[in-house]
Amino acid sequence: MARWLVGLLLVSGSAFAGQGLYPLMSTGDYPSPIEMMQKLEQLHPGVISEFEADLDNGELVYEFKVIDPEAKTKIEYEYRTIDGSFKERDVERLKNGDNDELAGILMLKENGITFSEMITIVCKDSGGHLVKAEVDNDLGISYIELEILEVDGKRKLAFDMENKQLLPLLKWD
Fold first, then answer.
1. What is the per-residue burial (b if ≥16 Cβ within 10 Å, else e) of 39-72?
2. pLDDT tens digits, the chain, 173 residues: what are they?
3. 62's torsion region: left (phi>0), alpha (psi -120 to 50) or beta?
C-alpha cells in the first residue's frame, strides 16, 4: 500500500510540474530553449548533450549539460529565464559511464551540426514545447531522446541523428 501511495504521489507530482511548465512556456515572455542553446554554444566550448526545462520555486529555468571531449569534462549550466543569466553549476571529468553520451556528441561533431540545429530539425513540426532532450548512443545508433509538452501532456520520442528521422521503435505516447 505504501509503495502504491508513493508511486501515485510521484506520478501526480510530475504531472503537476508539467502543467506548471506549459503555461509559462506558452506565454512567449521567455526566450525559447533553442535560443538559449544557440547562445550557450557560442559562449562555451564543447557540445550540449542534455537539456531540461524545469520549475525552481515557480521560476522557469533551463538546465544544460555540455561535454567538452578535448578537455574531457562535462559542465552543467543553469539558465535563469527571469534575469537571463547563465550559472555554471558543476564541472566533472568524463567517466567511463559517459561513453554513450560522448559517442552521440561525437556524431554531431563529425556531421558538423550543433545540438541546437539538430533540435530545430526534430521540433520543426511539433506543436508543443521542448522540455527535455538528451543525446545517447545505443546499439550503434546515436539518437536524441526528447520530451515534448503539449496541452494534454508529455510525448516522448527518439530521433536518429545520423539518418535524421524518428525511431519508430523508440516512440512513446
1. ebbeebebbbbbbbbeeeeeebbbbbbbbbeeee
2. 444 333 433 343 444 444 577 777 777 678 889 999 999 999 888 999 999 999 988 889 999 999 999 999 999 999 998 888 888 788 999 998 888 899 999 988 888 999 999 999 988 877 789 999 999 998 888 999 999 998 888 889 899 998 888 887 544 55
3. beta
Evaluate whether 134 touches 145 at the Cβ level (below 8 Å).
yes
* Cα–Cα distance measured from residue 71 to residue 123, given in angstroms and rounded to the nearest whole number: 30
Q: Which residue is it, cell 550559472?
A: 87
The radius of gyration computed from the CA coordinates of the chain, to the nearest angstrom, equals: 16
Burial (0-12, 13-18, 19+ Cβ within 10 Å), 34: middle
